[in-house]
Design goal:
The chain contains ten helices and twelve strands. It is α/β, with parallel strands linked by helices. The protein has three domains: 83 residues, Arc Repressor Mutant, subunit A; 98 residues, Periplasmic binding protein-like II (D-Maltodextrin-Binding Protein, domain 2, 3-Layer(aba) Sandwich), CATH 3.40.190.10; 103 residues, Periplasmic binding protein-like II (D-Maltodextrin-Binding Protein, domain 2).
Length: 299
Amino acid sequence: MERQKLPTLKQLQCFLAVAEELNFRRAAERMNMTQPPLTRQIQCLEETIGCCVLSRSTHAVQLTPAGLLLASKAQDIIGQLLTLMHSLHIEQDKIRIGMTNMLDFYQIPKFSSLLTQLEQEQQAILHAHSSRKLLMLLMGGEMELVFSGEKALLDSSLVYTRVYTEPLLAVLPENHPAARQSAIAMEDVADIPLFWFPRNYNIGYFDKCEAIFKKMRHELMRIKEPEDLLMLLNAVAKGKGIALMPQSMCLSTINGLCYRPLTEEYNQKLNIDIYLVYRANENRKHVIDAIAEIIQTSA
């Protein structure tokens, strides 16, 4: 099927200028052009649609019936195009922000208000995934900013700025002797396995913790943690092991389960540093402004 030729936006704009002014000289001035190019635009429009839209004489310019109909519709067409262009511009300026699913940013006041504001004002599109996955998307140009748990992927193209430190809580069966303590050292729970994540989930944080575990007086047993959070918590409540969880994720109340802070020593060693990460060559003003606002908010 042969594609039908359509009028151009320029042709419609020129026609509307003449239709409203009913004078080629004034219409040309309004369009910031001379009369001959304006006349050619009208002629091309008439050739494209196959009918005359203007009746011209040496004394007057009038709209034909077809011109009257076109004038009533052309303004709507141009208005719809302008609205679409505005929407596309807004969509292009939206900032794609990736947030590590290691913790719940909406439970952290300094981030909750900022993220809620960005969502309400439709300035950002928020995604949650593992830090490593998000950083790979960032490097591929599919994200503008990423909140990463530790430096999960080292690359010279990425800039890391620490914006927050998230403490961990020990999650343990409430009948374990250590549950009676106000703070937990890892040696206090070395008699029960630790549910732990695979190294490729977050290499930086995994290696950081493993280096600390190796220095413990007692060897720490580790078993693979369930991928589902509820399954993990139920397993802990049944006495199958303990877990270490970011404080912002410790919201579920389950019979047989309790949360305890770590001792100051282990809290300092095992807490999670959260970094705002962006591309080193980022130069778009709205992204740079967002980076500055986030860093200021987290100060």
